Amino acid sequence: MSETTVYLDNAATTRISDSVLEAMLPWLREGYGNASSVYSLGRKSAIALNKARAACAEILGCQTREVFFTSGGTESDNTAVFSAASVGREQGKRRIITSAFEHHAVLEPLKRLEKDGFDIVYLPVYREGIVRPADLEAALTPDTALVTVMTVNNETGTVQPAAELAAICAEHKVPFHTDAVQAFGNVPIDLKNVDMMSLSGHKLHAAKGVGLLYVKDGTPFRPYILGGAQQSGRRAGTENIAGIVGLARAMSDAAADMDAKNAKLLPLREKLITALSELPGAMLNGSREKRIASNVNVSFPGKEGETLVLRLDLMGIAVSSGSACTSGSLDPSHVLTAMGLSHDEARSAIRITMSKYTEPADIDALISAMKTIIN
Ligand SMILES: *Cc1c(COP(=O)(O)O)cnc(C)c1O
């Protein structure tokens, strides 16, 4: 395998930024105290934890007590879904509404709940890869325990009308959770009417194994990870101070960099879509306009996406086919099939995702490699 010189798989994970790494290092070297310990080494960790939480809350425009840290996006999603399901069960509510193309970190907990007697309703996402508010209106019933719809899809980058969906839920007094893992730093996040929201560090140039869950004041909450009384009893386990400090730094950087990053990446996205569209058979997946600036997802029906990924890898370029979590299995992406693509079309897709580190030369390299491979 040749060395990767062009990294275009930032929806799978991102490189840790220098500022995040520098913020983390003291908490990996000398600041190793347990934040629950009473002596000064522990108290220093507790202070760092509280500062990080306050910083995250300020960036999100919420109360400090509405934020706690998890091991990542998967745990945040599992926690939100199972909490709402527990509360729903207590209230005799057994319906959960989601979209057909959520991340597996939402879909798999829902499958478990379905076995336990919940009715799960999957809203359609159409060719453009976007949920329609009218479909949610039609699906809501008085016994709905939760609506969970992601803000930005991880495979197509398509932006959901999360604020509208949240407002509909608020009107019907149904809790709304959104997986904003691919949204934060790409589109503004509006927590108005949002009851729970998941974030992940490693999609934002922070470390793997750290994430955040926002739970609005007044939203009934049942913890998922049980054990110690850490984080006000909402998430047991000794806190990952270095990871958390890094996440706060990454969120602050991402919020500050968002407009400049989008201004830089939007023309690169358009250039890439235009160039790939000229290749024989190419087909853009998902709305061209209502997608984040950093995502391009294109199918080449008749080709195998996995093969394209391996050929690009030989040329030092990293992209993905389908989502990173399902590669290794040759099943077509559930996201693309939910959007109405045939199995052949879905299996021929490649996803190119940029970051603030992506330069025009990276996109030129990809375009020229794809021309060689496809023609
Ligand atoms: C990556 C991702 C997750 C999972 O986050 P981890 O921190 O890797 O557990 C969840 N949802 C979406 C949309 C993602 O892209």
Structural class, from secondary structure content?
A: alpha/beta
Fourth CATH level, the homologous superfamily of the largest domain: Type I PLP-dependent aspartate aminotransferase-like (Major domain)
CATH architecture tag of the largest domain: 3-Layer(aba) Sandwich
The secondary-structure element order is EHHEHEHEHEHEEEHEEHEHHEH
Q: DSSP helix count?
A: 11
**Distance between the terminal alpha carbons, to the nearest Å?**
23 Å
Instruction: Predict the CATH topology of the largest domain.
Output: Aspartate Aminotransferase, domain 2
* Oligomer class: single chain
Bound molecules: pyridoxal-5'-phosphate
- The CATH first-level class of the largest domain comes to Alpha Beta
Give the helix proportion (percent range).
Answer: 40-55%
The biggest beta sheet reads: 7 strands, mixed
Mean pLDDT: 96
Tally the structural domains: 2
Identify the overall geometry: globular
Low-pLDDT windows of residues = none
Rg estimate, integer Å: 21 Å
Tell me what the structure shows.
The chain is α/β, with parallel strands linked by helices and 375 residues long. The protein has two domains: 6-15 and 258-374, Aspartate Aminotransferase, domain 1 (Alpha-Beta Complex), CATH 3.90.1150; 18-253, Aspartate Aminotransferase, domain 2, CATH 3.40.640. Helices cover 40% and strands 13% of the residues. The protein contains eleven helices and twelve strands. It has helices at 18-28, 40-60, 73-90, 104-115, 133-139, 162-171, 241-277, 305-314, 334-338, 343-347, 360-374, and strands at residues 6-7, 67-70, 95-99, 119-123, 144-148, 176-179, 196-200, 211-215, 283-284, 295-299, 317-318, 349-353. A seven-stranded mixed β-sheet has the order 2-8-7-6-5-3-4, with helices on both faces. The protein has a three-stranded antiparallel β-sheet with strand order 9-10-12. A two-stranded parallel ribbon has the order 1-11. Helix 7 (241-277) crosses helix 11. The longest helix has 37 residues, at 241-277. The chain is globular. The chain binds pyridoxal-5'-phosphate. Residues 72-74, 77, 103, 105, 150, 154, 179, 181-182, 200, 202-203, 211 line the site of pyridoxal-5'-phosphate.
